[in-house]
Known about the structure:
globular, 47% helix, single chain, alpha+beta, two-stranded antiparallel ribbon, eight-stranded antiparallel sheet
Amino acid sequence: MGKRRFAQEALSDWMRSDGPDSEIVISSRIRIARNLRKQPFPMLATNQQSREVMEQLTAAAQSEELNEISRFDTFILSELSELEKRVLVEKHLISPNLASESRGGALILNDSESISIMINEEDHLRIQCLYPGFQIKEAWSLASQVDDIFESKVDYAFDEQRGYLTSCPTNVGTGIRASVMMHLPALVLTHQINRILSAITQVGLAVRGIYGEGSEAVGNIFQISNQITLGQSEDEIIDNLYGVARQIIEHEKAARERLVAESKIRIEDRVRRSFGILSNASIMDSKEAAQRLSDIRLGVDLDLIESVGPQVMNELMVLTQPGFLQQVFDEKLNADERDIRRAELIRRYLTQQT
């Protein structure tokens, strides 16, 4: 099987553009959960019912209205290798849940990989739109447009009192999850992060790691998202997240200014040590790589290091994940071999920059 388009490069096309406040906000995402009326949820569906849902939704995706937005390809999950599915997870184009349970599963993906539509995940339909930087309102506008197209083609499960019906009760109502992925090293280094995160949970938002629920916040990357989907309108959910995220951005900027004013030599030393280790290490596990890449990214953003650009950091954060490492080196790797290859890959990239 030849390499698919999504496996060719670590950075999706949408990631190559700078968005507002992109030195802090890596990406903005909207995910919409929908189900079809008179069809059991995916976890309860038979193989035949899952196929019927997939056929109905992939047919809807062929509409002229959707293809006026972008060109799309359809991938049947059962036809992808385990490595290809892992790469899709590492690029945040499908969920780990869809990768592990591909019965009747499919992915409809546009050319820039900014729109991914998952079929037969936890719900029949999950529409995801991604934007670089702090563009949560723009992501919502696009996702809503895609959602309207599907709603005009298929019959959604909807209740007048409860709203859109979903497999998990926490998604009932609007069915939307809005999130921003943020790089917050200064708040961590100034020991403000726990206070900030505690305050976030008080206003109905959740804090997760880079791969969502249940994942660890490594490399000082945090995903902030809404918890409430019922009882608030879509605009209220977006506005609440937008307001809180804006405050976090300002806190992170202030913390960075404080670090430069009070501890510039120490921060510069930390950045250069991480650069030196990554440029010379022979073995590097994923957790240490994420932390040291975070240090370098902070140094780039603070103009403490000029030889590396932020796009290189974004690319390395994806390339050094287990699936992509095996894709890059075209070989199956155990944990120890991945640590060796990860170090080799990072050395190669940083050497090219200097």
